Here is the input.
Amino acid sequence: MEHVRKDAHDGQPSTTPSGAWQRLRAGNQRFVAGQAVHPRQDAGRLATLVAGQHPWAVILSCADSRVPPEIVFDQGLGDLSVVRTAGHAADGVVLGSIEFAVTGLAVPLVVVLGHAQCAAVAAALQARATSTTPDGHLREVVEQIRRSMMLAGLRGLHPGRQDDTDWLVDEHVRHTCALLQERSRVLAEAMRAGRTALIAARYDLTDGVVRTLTWAGDPAGSGPEQPRSPDTSPSLRTAAPPLPSGRPSRSRRP
Ligand SMILES: [Zn+2]
Here is the structure.
């Protein structure tokens, strides 16, 4: 296994959790500034990937058409392993996809990426307001978000206005991270061993910025700041995560 890889374009090491997150943040900053370079999307890159792939981050994001990870993080072919479902709902197939990347491809970072104005989250709020349940498999998506809503209630958070979904987006992203750790022994072990970190983040449709909500599982990190209690789900607290380098942005809500 290749332990330290240098990126051909930015020269940054990409196999540590912190290094991978720094690359994603740098790419998002380029995207936000209108200076995206669309790296590693040419014929040369295509050719190098025939022999194999070495992605360095897994992104579990919402399937919303406005949140394509390769674009908002300004990355190229072979960089990211992306799993997308409505409301980043995580079932067994999603967990298996993440586990394949973490164990089979030695990916050092898993990011759960929610976003503002998420329609799946709005559907869950609507279902609660009307005491209804959506038809078909959308029900499974809504039920997972409603569990996040219930946990938020148990933690004493306020739901805010009915038409304001962003408080629940943040909570649901954190809950999804906790769920991944609880249900995936493979991921939890990789995190305990320091091979993989897990980051919760939110994408804002208005400015294109990806903001960190919380993180877990990087013993190589030395960040001095511990997550605030309201930002940390029970399982994340149980994991007692050291922090990767860098400081999280604060949630817009308490
Ligand atoms: Zn969404």
Remarks:
- Residues 62, 64, 87, 115, 118-120 surround zinc ion (CB under 6 Å).
- The chain has one domain: 17-239.
- The mean pLDDT is 82.
